[in-house]
Design brief:
heterotrimer; A mainly alpha; B mainly alpha; C alpha/beta; B: 2 strands; 75% helix; C: alpha/beta; Rossmann fold; 2 domains; 19% strand; elongated
Chain lengths: 344, 288, 401
Amino acid sequence: MTSEAQAAAPVPVTKSTGHRLGITGREWRNLAIAAVLFALAAVVPLVGSGYVQSIAISIAIYTALATSWMLFSGPTNYISLATAAFFGSGMYIVAGGLDLAPYPVLVLLAGVAGALFAAVVGLATLRISGVYFVIFSLGLAELVRQIITWLQHVLGTMSGLYVYVDRSEEMFFWQLLALTAVVYLVGWWIGRSRLGFALRIIGNDELVAVHCGINTARAKVILFVISSTFAAIAGALVAPRWSYVEPTIAFSPFLSFQVVIMALLGGVHRLWGPLLGVIPFTLLWELISANFPAQTTLLLGAAFLLIVYFIPNGVVGLIEDALRQRGEWLKSLRLLLVRRSRDA
Amino acid sequence: MDIIIIGLLLGATYALMAMGLQLQYGVARIMNLANGEMLIAGAFGTFWFYTASNASPFYALIGVIPLAFAVNWAIYRVLIVPLVRRARNQGQLEVDCILATFGLSFILVGILLAVFGGEYLSYSYLARPIFILGEPYGLNRVAAFIGSLVLCLGLYLWLHRTRPGLALRAVSVNPAAAGLVSINVTRASALAFALGGAVTAAGGVLLSMFLTFDASLGVVFTLKALIIVILGGVSDIRGAILAAFILGLAETTVASLVDPGLTLAAAYLLFMAILLVRPEGLLGRRSS
Amino acid sequence: MRRRELLKYGAATTVAASFGQRIARAADPSVIKFGVVGPKTGPLAPGAAVTHFPNFKLWAYEINQRGGLKLKDGMHKVELIEYDDRTQPPETIKAVERLATVDKVDFIMPVYATGFNLAVAPIYAKYNYPLVTQACVTDQMDQLIKRYPNIFFVQGSTTSFAQAAIDILKKLKDDKQIGNKVAVVNVADDFGIELANAGRPIFKKAGFDIVYDKSYPLGTQDLAPVVKAAKAANPDAFVAWSYPPDTFGLAEQAKIEGLNVKAYYSAVATAFPGFYQKFGPAAENVLGAGGIKDTPEIRAYYKAHKEATGVDADYWGSPFYYSLLQMITQSIEGVGSMDLKAITAYLKSHTFKTIVGELDIRNQKLDKFYTVGQWQNGFFNAVAGVGFTDYSPVKLKTSWG
């Protein structure tokens, strides 16, 4: 899976140079590299065992969720805990509609529903910021869950819904990988569009943005909609893998937290940041779960604390520090050599 | 009438869950996601105490409060202070705290699991009716209600009538300015954090008389407490208490008059509606 | 800085120690490895801590005490490899895959709870492990059996549980021991909703008048309004399709409110030993899901369970869980090797002698199980079931003591 990490790494987010057509040579090259590496990632399930596949699927799910989360929360600094609300809605649309429409249609429908839902919520919550927004979004997921459960009771349907769509493990992975690729493309496109530029200004100082004539509300809502649509589609894609959907599992607040935490651990100011959180995080958790079955939770917590204290700026920060240090080291080496040669 | 009384009893329960977090978040500015585990620890401690000695759970408070205070003080000094020191701004601190206390909550769950096991723990104490205006209510709930009132009142008076309380309020308004008037901000924050932990654990002691707990349940209480604290407006303990009672009354009203199935939905709806009208919570101040 | 070093050193030693343990336990090739996955943390953990994990522990202990499993090539000790899925389906899936492809265990025990068993069913099928589900109650057994040749169900359908509880009330009503007014509440989650929906038409058909019928959310902290309203409807019987925390909460509230119905039923967790420990004599004559026949074998089982695991077994799933393990043991020893397909075939073609009696799972569904129990003198006696013949008589609830 490290191939994926490298895949994303060179995609530039902030480059938006004078080329009218937009895409520079360097960007073409990076896109090509990303495409090749995505293709490499796509081979993983063909060569790996079932266990490797299940890890790869986990990574793909969380990469898609964390990256789409970061599309909204990265530039705006709004920490949203509503991922589960959209993810769960997507699951339920698939689970509830399987008798009525073919699966691919439902996946699209989940996306549309997620977008509409997010637009309404986004428009309503604009006034709320900071920690109030964090908890508000958390309340949103719980509210949706409560309403769905209550509706099931009133309508007399079953609580757990069975989702049987015949898909091989590979297919699950490829679907999620494709979703991740779309998330990256959209993220990349936003980064180089006027919208992305506006968002960076908002993220730095909202007041300045307003004075520049940017419609901050519109920009934020658009981003929230994009980000939530992906979460809903991810839910729709995962539903058949879980076979059985129930509210407590589909709307688990833990999912929202995990997505936020993985993204923050990676870094939210680079498109490839969340990926660098998801991969090491998933592997580390896997290592702990596999080796310490009796104290999994305790050690997960401990590992977590160590990460927070020793990698304060996320994995991206770690890498950037290392790059900078290498740069400085090279510079001093060059200085030294120059001085040597001059002395000689 | 009984709707109001049941609502007040439930409100007191919620106040017990939320007051500790209010101190930790409102004053010490630490969004403590491990708050619920502290409550569970208090409840488990009481369970253990009650089954071992068969003495009133109220006596457990004598041990639980100082112990929780010490543990939380230590948590603040060891885990939180480095984060406060390195944070460049409030936003950074908030993110770091979310991450760190999230990890901490896992550790605490792991410890609780190892010490007490994973089963449901509950015991029966004062589970008999007390008649108020001719209607029966659980005596244990009424006892917890009184305990909750004593705690609320005590905290309020302490914050508003004593010098350390004044210092805490100053820190909660503006830590930088508080530092300028020779308040030891780190000390005051540690005090608030430890006190918050102690109050939460005391809440666990009282709640254990009528709720059933297990080691993984902490997150449920953390979420409820977060919602109440935010609803109240983070900076004022009166806001949290008010919010707790509003939620208690609202949930009971919906449960009795509309449909019990919608109680939590109503609570969240109310929470969101209030935030939409007052984005800083009930008694919150607009941040500068 | 020194604190950091200490932390690092501490973590490193723990890691090293545990790896050492792991390598050591994998060393003996004659040991037969059994995989166990279940929630040690998360919402389902407390149930699993009573019903799921301890039984496996007891079973492995007993098998090793008697020298191991008897295969064609001699006696083999058994070893459990346990993983915590933290009540998250992706973790369950990963853990089962890990057992199958990394640990290469010889057998995988069922996972805990309906949704999780269904989520891993395709994986068990892929690797041919028999999936003898437990704590898995569904109305779609036949479809699932058609789908998975290796799946086995040992509990009845949701409908059969609702049916059995209502049949008991109907009999009391027909004998003129109670009236026809019943108050029904349910937890708005999973099994609670399904039972409520299955129960409604059955109540009607049995001639009951449902005077109160509401749900309440999972995790409701105050059930006073629910019980008060139910009491106000003046029912003759009270039925709660409830889940663990609220099963306790409802009983306590019913006691406080003086909800003195002659028949009081609450679903999941009434069979937990903790229920009687909490309420003592007040729990007498409370009806609930599960139940078990009081026999010397069963008494011995409870004693052994407590001694080997330190936990009290419950009066519903636990003894059946153990019976399942007896069936699996007999199948493995009957086949004489760890040939998974042969073991599945053996399960499908034999009957088994277990602590709960002679069991038959040949058409992938267990032929008998208990559905309703009642606390009588501190024991949760079976008063109804499917396939058994001998049930304790139902008693009326006189008061909450």
